[in-house]
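so i finally got all the pieces together for this one. its three components total, 1067 residues if u count the protein bits. some of the lines might not be protein, just check the labels. i wanna see the whole assembly predicted at once instead of chain by chain like last time, that was a mess tbh
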Amino acid sequence: MALPLAVVWSQVAQQVTSGLAAGAIYASLALALVLIYQTTNVVNFAQGEMATFTTYIAWTIMNHGVAYWPAFVLTLLIAFGGGVTVERVLIRPVEHRPELVIVILTIGMLIAINGLTGWIWGPEVKAFDSPFPNRSVIVGGVAISIQDIGTFCVCLGTVVVLWLFFRFTTLGLAMRSVAFNPDASRLMGVRVGWMLALGWGFAAALGAVAGMMAAPTVFLDPDMMLVILIYAFAAAVLGGIDSPVGAVVGGLLLGVVINLLGSYVDFVGQELRLPTALAVLLLVLVIRPRGLFGRVVVRRV
Amino acid sequence: MRRWASPVLQGLVLAAAVVLIVLLPRFTSEFRLGQFTYVGIYFIALLGLNILTGYNGQISLGHAAFMAIGGYTAAILILGQKGFELAGHDPAQVIPEHGMRALFTIPIAGLVTGVIGYLFGLPALRLAAVSLALATLAVAVSFPALAKRFEHLTGGGGGLSLPLPHAPFGWDISTPHWLYYEAWVTAAILFVVAWLLVRGRVGRAWRAIRDGEIAAVSSGVSPAVYKTLAFGISAAYAGVAGALFAIQVSYINPDTFPVTLSILLLASVVIGGLSSLSGVIVGALVLEFLPIYAQAPPVLHLNFAKQAGPVVFGFVLMVIVLLVPGGMASLIRRITRPLTAALARKA
Amino acid sequence: MNRALLALAAVLAALAVSIPGAFGRTLETATPTATPGVTSSSITIGGTFPLSGPASLYAPIPRGMEAYFNWINSRKGPDGRKGIRGRQIVWKYYDDGYNPAQTVQLTNKLILEDKIFADVGSLGTEHNQAIRPLLNDRKIPQILVATGASYWGLQHKQYPWTIGWQPDYIAEGRAYGLWITKNAANAKIAVFYQNDDYGKDYLRGLKIGLGAKKSLIVSEQSYEATDTSYASQLARQKASGANTWVLLSIPTPTVRALATAKALNWKPDTIVINSVSAIDSVMAAVASRAGPEYVNGAISSGYLKNNNNPKYSNDPIVRRYQALLAQYGPSGADSKNGFYFYGFAKAYDVVKLLYNAGKNPTRASLIKATQSMNWVNPYMIKGIKVKTSKTDHFPISQLKLARYGNGTFSEFGPLIKGR
């Protein structure tokens, strides 16, 4: 358990930096989970697989000679359309059924989409382009890759855009009101059904961003999001499943803590990083079930 | 709730099922018999999961990990320190010196897993449905890393090879037959236990908690007691199934109980029908046979890609959730009800 | 409800009574007169492979073998007859999804339903380990398994019906160790390995090869399948000041690790990549994300001809492989994929063994044939001999180092004897 004597400051900083980079990816997928939860009160277990699928679509588009940013935007649009369709076709009919049923439906989606991805694109690992160069800058002995900085900025940028959207646009306000009280919103003339579908669409697009940011470092592979989803879940639950800020903080925290645990706690080592992080998470949940930033849940009688 | 026409008919159907299970070995090949042994093993695991999820409303995406705990318990007891050393492993001191007869390890595996499940149920009490799904999934995902880390107990990533199964006490019965009856007699016993539990006071308490915790409290049911009890019993079922699985496969390593199995177990419970003990058999059949037949459907003469299995599984699950809320059990009920009603009228 | 209970009790009693009825049937192989899987016109062999899931990049192996067997079945052999001495090869292979429990179930299917003569070339270390006791117990040959673990050769006494094929991981790791001591005597080595028997076998071999210079290793870090980022491990390897990096990882982690090293601005002078990951598609992915300097000059090893190397573009065997794969392989098979070539090389030795098992092959005669292999497999690098004896149970134990450049690996240096 003892900390090794040679804790070099620059090495700790390096561990923290790379932890933040990994955490940014968990955070963006966590944000997608939170978005869906906020608007529809559903935890989407297929979020990761939807992200993987759309990232493969982006790969296919770019393979046809389309440049990165046009392909990026096109992918977001496709993802958005896909998200809306999923909500309308699959989620709508079970909207009023117990939470368990909806969770299981998304698990069905997880299984099907994961299989479909492997079926269509095969198991070979594929390189995925990044808009940011894979060089690094050195700050005080710490190497920070421009790719990581870019990912980080995109992630933060998304949060800001989302916040602005929900805070200052009519549509955002309508969506928030639906999440808060669907019946009252309906009476006010908000088209509740479409708001929920939009929530799914935005979440799918957000997932696509997460996938496209993750793919340059984890590489395209049908299972690439399976474990990231677990981290994203952990991040979202840690932050409070209904809090976007919580999701981001949770994601970054998780990335950093995992790196430091693996490097400086001998018993944990590289092998037990994931179990330890999850155990810590459980502990947090037991002490504070609503997470760090979550609202108090009022239980239905 | 009286869903079936009459208890007599219910008994008859059950009797028919038992007769079918008993007589099946006479009509199938040895390999098919092996497949039906797996059906029996999955049947037990799904019974346990249905108690937890169907009757008590607690979700678990970690039942493969509980199966793994049962499997490892059985494997460790069967081998003993001597067996570990023979296989070139360095055994932990806690392992008994001599191996045990495989049959006796099954209840012990159930007990050990049950206790672990009960303990896990304590913190789980504090978790809402979503967090619980995550927590159990986390257990399933972490299990392989833990199993590898404690190599003296588990044989590490290379796993443990068990002696090939044989019928005990010098009984003159072929191994596949023995394993088949071992699994199904255990399944029958556990089915009766589950049936008695679900019909009785405990089951009423479970359902009351599922349908509304606060209402349950006000009618004098303690959610803490009954929820942890459900977790413990459910885990014990998974542990028994895991032990039978390890004995049947005669090998165990961290990959034998992958996370996907946890997910498919939950899916199968839903396909069979939540809170329906008879639906569990459908779930078990689906879990064993659907992945095989999805690749090459028997009637259609199509040969889909190998990846088709999971895709079909996922779609079947979605269709069931969307169109047949009660699962296959309710579908069967819906088909048979007019029939039984007609029979009742005649009588 | 009581009546239902009564009914239940009655059936349970019936169950108890009827079980003894089943005892009478002893299904287990009533001493077969003929060898299972062998008829006058056919010989049935089978194996298990990951055709779906994350390990399914190996799926071309059994399909390559299939193409080769199809050709053997349709051409006239040296004795003027098609197939093996007039018997057609029937090749059954199933998808175990890389789950050992599935491997066991499907191997039972191969034994009981397909009645195979031998289990041939099944893939995966744990997977072969899981089925080894049951095949040996039934005295069914488990030959030329597709894994580089060392047990197959080392534990011959315990499991005489099992034999490996390719050079084992220890032998390969040793070759890298030897090369480093010779060519970079002052190297500081960082090892990145998969935390399981595969990674650890390699590491052990590397240390054997380094011998007294074992202390050159300054950093050992492992990864788990559940790691999504290796930055933590690699930052420490970078900090160790290592200039030689040995990657003992499977394909996807290898690509990730190299790209992560680039992101950390760490470029070791020498990069060694184990043969499992030394695949051209892996190297291309690295080159595109981390840059060509991370692949060019990388050291690996091989024992098969590299069918993508210009050196072999006019090699008659490589030419024939391309033609046969196009004619007998699955439609759309990419002959550049080295796993098809691996399948051909394996199938060549399978056919040799089936011939050598004699006019009336039995399982015992097949195993006997595996103990006196001694030939040149034309799919392998020149000079390598497939050789076994009563005391040597490693069919291929020579290999050559290879260096990456111009988009593919080129062998160099002398043949290295692995054991």
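Residues 1-5 of chain A have pLDDT under 50 and may be disordered.
The interface with chain C takes residues 8, 11, 14-15, 18-19, 21-22, 25, 118, 122-127, 129-130, 134-136, 138, 143, 145, 147-148, 216-219, 221-223, 227-228, 231, 255, 258-259, 262-263, 270-271, 273-274 of chain A (CB under 8 Å).
anyway lmk what u think
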